[in-house]
Task: structure prediction
Amino acid sequence: MTEPIVSVRHAVKTFQASKGGLGGKKKFVHAVNDVSFDIQPGETFSLVGESGCGKSTTGRLIDHLISPDSGEIWFCGKDISHIPEKEMRPLRADVQMIFQDPYGSLNPRIKIQDQLGEPLLLHTNLSQGERLKKVQELLRTVGLSASHGERYPHEFSGGQLQRIGIARAISVNPKLMIADEPVSALDVSIQAQVLTLMKKLQSQLNLTYLFISHDLSVVEMISDRIAVMYLGAIVELADKRDLYARPIHPYTQALLSAVPEPDPTIKKDRILLEGDIPSPVNPPSGCLFHTRCAYCTERCRQEVPEARDFGNGHMVKCHLAEKFAGK
Amino acid sequence: MEEKILEVRHLTTEFKTGKNTAVTAVNDVSFDLARGEILGLVGESGCGKSVTSLSIMGLFEDTAGRVANGEILFDGMDLTKVPKKQLREIRGKRISMIFQNPMSSLNSCMRVETQLIEAIRLHNDLSHGEARKRAFDMLAAVGIPDPEQTLRSYPHQLSGGMSQRVMIAMALCCEPEMMIADEPTTALDVTIQAQILELMKKIRDKNNTSILFITHDLGVVAEMCTRALVMYAGRIVEEASVLDLFASPVHPYTKGLLASMPRLGADIRDLTSIPGSVPDLSAMPKGCKFAPRCPYAAAACREAEPELRPIPGANGRKCRCWLYGADAEKEANV
Result:
């Protein structure tokens, strides 16, 4: 087995939600709760879950935009969890991000070619002329024309802006690309364009993707392996085919059955979850999912389930996993 | 023939952009909604689906928008012509609306109770106590576990799914004959979306409410609706029963839209996209509005715009495409 490009070991991250004071207790949002996984070079690893499940926080931990409270994050054989920014600098070119809001991630007052040239200015020794040439080449790679560089962000549509965001991310030849909901803000017809572009670039440039999304159908198309998150923890992690063919955790099962299928002839047996996601300030005891789980037992309420392996890297955190797997 | 609750005829809505200029957001849109029917209105952002719903509700006061042409017959009354006072009696009582973002549609400074009671007492001659009782029952009916607690809450204390339930309760509290749901689940997570969709179907079955369901998500349409309209650039390009629409889409745009939908069990290689992007309302192409992105476009498509024509013998199906007409004529000649 090759060495993973990213290893996350028991990462925990909490944010302070209230200061306490006047005899009150300090409150913390448990955003990421004991998360461990590896990303292999060249694969697309996805984090999927509903809002507030900690998928974006995990992405930001790997990009060293925030540091974990405990646990380790290894990137290319180096523990980056607590290194100072100065040491992270040289690694920055290797990790690039694509964001959800393509307009918000570009400066409205700078021409596209200057924005695309900036990472090159920081991370390479190219001259001004060479940079411009490279920028025009990048624009063509993502399906725009060189003349688009003269324009400002407001002159583009959402899909084109996301292409520019991708061009900026690949400009410095990163090893890992973190895509945080890159297509959620786009219309379906445009979404397909961007996804196909990402897949094409991956094989051309040998990229590794960490893909963060709430959309299970999008995730299935683009990923090799998928981790399902709930309230800051990974509840199930498996190869794409395994996960969709044989979801074991009751949450994964409910999540998959809730996806509306664009086919009116399919009548699904929908698993309707009761209630809402509990607040991450006050996560439930025992199994995090027990408040909404139809199979909840006394043990689930008290004991935190360990990760169990069901072969081929299929990892499930559920006390009753054997029962569901046997089904 | 079932009874029609809503008939929209040649609706055209414009927005003023300058002193003498305007853009047409909705162009010659006609459709019917039967009692108890859930009709889907699908399209991408900017296609005019929300403007259609706002036109029906007459919610253009103090904005640049106005209904420039056409009629909206609700139970035989033309909503574009009825006096304001009468319209206010219909809105909220007989037609109600659910919006996309529940958080910004509720007043954040008022308790849920105050807002619900206001809506109920505005249209019904009830005492405060009776209205509160009805509000409590409505919240229970939409599946809120602790209605008493929720009544006393402020909107920020509720989750997204909960506030959308409150919105639905508010829309339902006067037992409307028709509901317009404008992307009611788009802001919600999938598991919560499934709950809300289930709830809306239940309401329809119980009260025989007609629902105009506006969404960009074809998956949701497949699940909820019996019939659907596909909109593009302010026009209806295809009208069909949901079964027909998904089994054999006719318009190239519908075909493209369905092919570009990521779905469970599909591979990325199955995904095809529609090239280009939606035209700007102020710079519409001549001829068929979809022609610049259409893989089948011929010279004629770029010259003149096709009509929305019924497809002969196909159960109320309509399509706005030159090519379809040409094929049909060819077939007729053979």
Observations:
- The longest strand of chain A covers residues 6-18.
- Residues 136 and 147 of chain A are 8 Å apart (CA to CA).
- The interface with chain B takes residues 50-51, 157, 159-160, 187-193, 195-196, 199, 214-218, 220-222, 244, 254-266, 270, 272-273, 275-277 of chain A (CB under 8 Å).
- Residues 6-91+212-261+268-326 of chain A form a domain with the Rossmann fold fold (CATH 3.40.50.300).
